[in-house]
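Cross-check.
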Amino acid sequence: MDHSFLPLFSFFVGIIVGLTGIGGASLITPMLIFVFQVPPAIAVSSDVVAATLMKSVGSFKHWQQKTLDTKTVQWLALGSVPGSLFGVGILYRIKQTGEHNLNDILLNLVGMMILLVTSLALTQLMLLTFFPKLKLPELPKLDLDAYSGRFLAICLGATLGCLVGLTSVSSGSMFALALIAFFPLDTHKLVGTDISQAAILLAFTSLGHLTLGTVDWNLVLPIWLGSVPGVLIGAKLCQIAPQRPLRFVIYTILLMVSYKIVSC
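Predicted model, tokenized:
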């Protein structure tokens, strides 16, 4: 497909990201691969660089609105940044050895990551929607005023950050699940906190991907052109839009997208 349509597609993705905190790489990377026929290695790296600005703009907007928790962002980022660079280092090693096809590896990794994250998120959302009185065992919340809570937050950030470095996927979705499960955040601060930690994580991850030589600026610039105004609109709508129905629709779409990738 003609790349002239890329800003329009990215605009709608930007709205989704600003509105819900999810769907950036999970939507843009498959879109680049299947709609615009971009090789997976280039799609992943270009998406990481493009998503950095999109998430940073969204983060600034949420900071202005005071809809984020800075302490949670800080301790997650202390783990996710080195973790993501480690993930990029794995990709660099694979590319240097030339023993495996980087495009094939990334396509499978992206598909499995989206499938895993979406399945978990959709299951959680459906349980909350259709069985609101169901008492599920709650995971312990991390106390970021204690050394143990900070250490566990750093470890959690490092693990998820490594997966983001490898695939570009889940800087929003997987961290959103972790925030819900392990951090005592107010609902109105969840999206902003998720986007803000992703902005920091992707800023460093993008530097790593630039060293791989797989970033295509002819893709990055059109994505920026569409996604930046989209994420600003989405962040504003986040204050009034119902989150649960929106997330259900997005997760359903992502489930179908991931199934197509895995089945390739």
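The chain has one domain: 3-262. The radius of gyration is 17 Å. Passed to J.P. for a second look.
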